[in-house]
Amino acid sequence: MNYNLLSITIAFIFSIHLILKNVNKKNKNWLIIIFLVSCMLIFLFGIVGILLRWF
Fold first, then answer.
1. Whole-angstrom Cα distance, residue 23 to residue 34?
2. Cα separation of 55 and 43, whole Å?
3. DSSP state of 28
4. Any stretches that span the bilayer, and where are they (predicted)?
5. Residue 47 belongs to domain spanning
6. Each residue of 1-55: pLDDT tens digit?
7. Which residue, among 19, 1, 2, 13, has the nearest Cα to 43 in the 3D structure?
8. What's the number of domains the chain is made of?
């Protein structure tokens, strides 16, 4: 079990949950959208880095 991958996944899911909860209150909050995009990019780069270490 890779705890690095697990912790990144949990943090990503939790951040999406918080963002979606806030987006429902304010439909056009660009800071939340930018935060979501940056979280997705960090998550993708983390996955790519972990996969590159494995291979």
1. 12
2. 19
3. T
4. 6-23, 30-52
5. 3-54
6. 566 777 777 777 887 777 777 766 665 667 777 777 887 788 778 778 777 776 5
7. 13
8. 1
